[in-house]
Amino acid sequence: MGTLEIKNVSYRYGRGTPFETLALSDVSFSLETGEMICVIGHTGSGKSTLMQLMNALLKPDRGSVVLNGRDINKNKASAYEARFHVGLCFQYPEYQLFGETCSEDIAFGPRNMGLEQSEIQRRIQEAAALAGLEQNLLQSSPFALSGGQKRRCAIAGVLAMRPEFLILDEPTAGLDPAGREMLMETVRSYRLKTGAAVILVTHSMELAATSDRILVLGGGKLLLDGPPEAVFSEIDVLTKHGLNIPFASRVCRALQKRGFDLPTVCTPETAADAIESLLRGEGKL
Amino acid sequence: MQDLPLIDFDHVTFRYEEADGAPPAVSDITFRVGKGEFLAVLGSNGSGKSTLAKLANGILVPQKGSVRVLGAGTDAPQTQLEAKKTVGVVFQNPDNQIVASIVEEDVAFGPENLSLPPREIRKRVDEALAAVGMTDYAKHETHKLSGGQKQKVAIAGMIAMRPECLILDEPTAMLDPRGRNDVMQTLSHLHEAFGISIVLITHFMEEALSANRVLLMHNGALRAQVAPKELFSDPALVTECGLTLPDAVAFTLALKKRGIPFSKDVFSEAELIDALTDLLQSGVRR
Known about the structure:
By secondary structure, chain A is α/β, with parallel strands linked by helices. Chain A has helices spanning 47-54, 76-85, 102-112, 117-131, 147-159, 177-194, 205-208, 228-231, 235-240, 247-257, 268-281, and strands at 3-13, 21-32, 36-41, 62-67, 70-71, 86-89, 165-169, 197-201, 213-218, 221-226. In chain A, strands 6-7-8-3-9-10 form a six-stranded mixed β-sheet, with helices on both faces. In chain A, strands 2-1-4-5 form a four-stranded antiparallel β-sheet, covered by helices on one side. The relative contact order of chain B is 0.14.
């Protein structure tokens, strides 16, 4: 059982310049392996900054990031080590591919971990299979792949390190509906197989509604932290910060306002159940 | 001149690698974009949508067929330049489109190259930034903006050029709900107030509902060219092309399967809420 604690973390960009901006202010929360978490927030709310603080790519100005009881910023070695445990996949990761072959690209992380050649090979196979990258593409140049295949290759590179905490920053941006579903399937099966925590940064309220827990960032602060039902009942906080509630909840809420007795629900299924039983209950079906 | 379509694709085929046997990226595409139209282009990844965008203003030139912008083919250097003035393209990833280090300088880049007087440049930059809600960021450094903010700056840069047609390749893919709404409203505003033609390439089915017409791409071919409501009344076609229905349409279908009758077609969220209100209010037993 692993934990990743973010303790009173603040971070500023451009310290000492006229453009100094507070990106994060006194943010605290704790994650445990096995959790499925979505992070939502308006553009510029500090989501990407927070993700980079979580694996020591950035160092907090104040506060600390503690992985399994150890401050990851204690020294260079601890920061280096943290990156194998907290795997971070950036937005549009396909722009970061560099290997001559997909196999080489995926091997980069495991090799830096100092794993043996046979283990590296095993990791490549496993990660490619999880990410849905076809075997016959492993010896191809990643630059010869389609956009969707490139993204799967880049994600495989992170999975190959088997991080306890897998962070994906807007992994479905630019993907078609089938591609989005395939990617989410990869994430779900990785979590099931390894027991890792998955942290997804997303602009999709519908996707966030399917997680166990939602963190809401706004103006560099952690505004809300709770299960979808709790977070999506705070509609005023969300809309004030450029966010929204999921489609099905919006429909129920609008009908509530018109005087119908519907719950604040988060999924299309529960909304349909409620509407159907309301109609049946009143003998209208 | 009045009757010339803005963009005219006539049996266009394009392949990136002419030598090898790879199938063309787009094949035998014919359509027109008229003045003042709002088109949406839908299709799964790799269906040829982005290739269409690059063909439309002469960034790419077809191997077969022709692309004409206001009647002039895009295959000659002189007309290519004119095509790029007429048809502006905003791409998927704003990082590849930002050229200056300060926001307002980036937006001014296009108008400066049109040799406009400074006062006109100032006016256009201010208007463009206001249109995308980035006025407060005019003096900010572009590399410090978030992805969504950069995309808004890239759109502002195109708006400042006042092209007759804007092609946007998934402009909202990286934006939060408000940002997405802002951009969609900005596009509607540009379309209605200035009569700019809009061609919106998107993976968000809801956004296609704003369009007059949808081009549905599948495996490099133009599979359908219909009104959005007509397309979303054909779930089989939508699924076959790897897409999904808009949330309101899918939700309505799910309710219909449960035996809940709808007397009218539902496409948008507002229509769904009204239809459900009618259902819940009607037939009250007295």
